[in-house]
Amino acid sequence: MPSLGRLHLITDTRPGRDPLTVVRAALTAARTDLVVQVRVEDSATDREAYDLARRVLALCDPYGATCLVNDRLHVALAVGAAGGHVGADDLPVAAARRVLGPAGVLGATARAPGAATEAVAAGASYLGVGPCHTTSTKSGLPDPIGPTGVRAVVDAVDVPVIAIGGVTAERVPALRAAGAYGVAVVGALSAAADPARATAQLIEALTC
Ligand SMILES: Cc1ncc(COP(=O)(O)OP(=O)(O)O)c(N)n1
Ligand SMILES: Cc1ncsc1CCOP(=O)(O)O
Ligand SMILES: [Mg+2]
């Protein structure tokens, strides 16, 4: 399996956002370092998720970037994505692994060492850990865990830890110092005036 990209762009499909334009711009700057996670609103239909995932995958392929699908693993399989990401409201990790098969990339959400080791034992290939900082993108989340919370998970597992929640290029060094392999962002790219430039800044922070 090729190594996991360090910058995970999660699509923002809230009203008024333009996820495909952001994906196109990010790909030009991050190329194979980019993982695009197709995430749609819970109210979206499977057909809408499928159509977006197909279009994202077609954009990713020429760059050798990875496309994952959030929550809806049947959509991931249907479009031929590399895998998917599951959290507490989704399929359990072991079930998700059975759906994706041994070769699929499977991300799981964890914010504490215990849940993290369980997810890895159940077949997670990477962990999404957070929220690291406050975020306005998703409501109802627990308090941020900060770089210290990231470090606690990193020390407990041997898979890549992707820090999520309020991540900006300025916050990447502290997350990297805490052992994060990479970061996942929504707003840092979706709300950027120049998403290609913002992507380049995130990549620079992740690789220096
Ligand atoms: C990389 C990454 N980490 C965490 C999440 C959150 O997943 P989940 O807890 O299932 O919440 P939703 O994104 O489904 O609302 C993620 N998507 N990606
Ligand atoms: C889906 C999700 N899960 C934890 S934080 C988050 C949203 C992250 O968005 P942003 O990068 O805009 O803070
Ligand atoms: Mg989920």
Helices and strands in order:
Elements: E1 7-10, H1 19-30, E2 34-38, H2 46-60, E3 66-70, H3 73-79, E4 83-86, H4 93-100, E5 105-110, H5 113-121, E6 126-129, H6 146-154, E7 161-164, H7 172-177, E8 182-185, H8 187-190, H9 195-207
Parallel strand pairs: 1-2, 1-8, 2-3, 3-4, 4-5, 5-6, 6-7, 7-8
The site of 4-methyl-5-hydroxyethylthiazole phosphate (TZP) has 14 residues, from helix 8.
Pathway: Cofactor biosynthesis; thiamine diphosphate biosynthesis; thiamine phosphate from 4-amino-2-methyl-5-diphosphomethylpyrimidine and 4-methyl-5-(2-phosphoethyl)-thiazole: step 1/1
EC number: 2.5.1.3
Pfam family, one: TMP-TENI
Secondary structure category: alpha/beta
Query: Any idea of the CATH topology?
Result: TIM Barrel
Tally of separate domains: 1
Number of strands: 8
**How much strand?**
15-25%
Oligomer: single chain
Provide the gyration radius in Å.
15 Å
Kindly describe this structure.
The chain has 9 helices and 8 strands. It is an alpha/beta fold. The protein has an 8-stranded parallel beta barrel, surrounded by 7 helices. Strand 3, helix 3 (73-79) and strand 4 (83-86) form a beta-alpha-beta unit. The mean pLDDT is 97.
Concise synopsis of the structure shown:
The chain is 40% helix and 17% strand. With 208 residues, the chain is α/β, with parallel strands linked by helices.
Short descriptors:
TIM Barrel, 40% helix, 8 strands, single chain, binds 4-methyl-5-hydroxyethylthiazole phosphate, binds ligand LCLJCK34, eight-stranded parallel beta barrel, binds magnesium ion, alpha/beta, globular, 208 residues
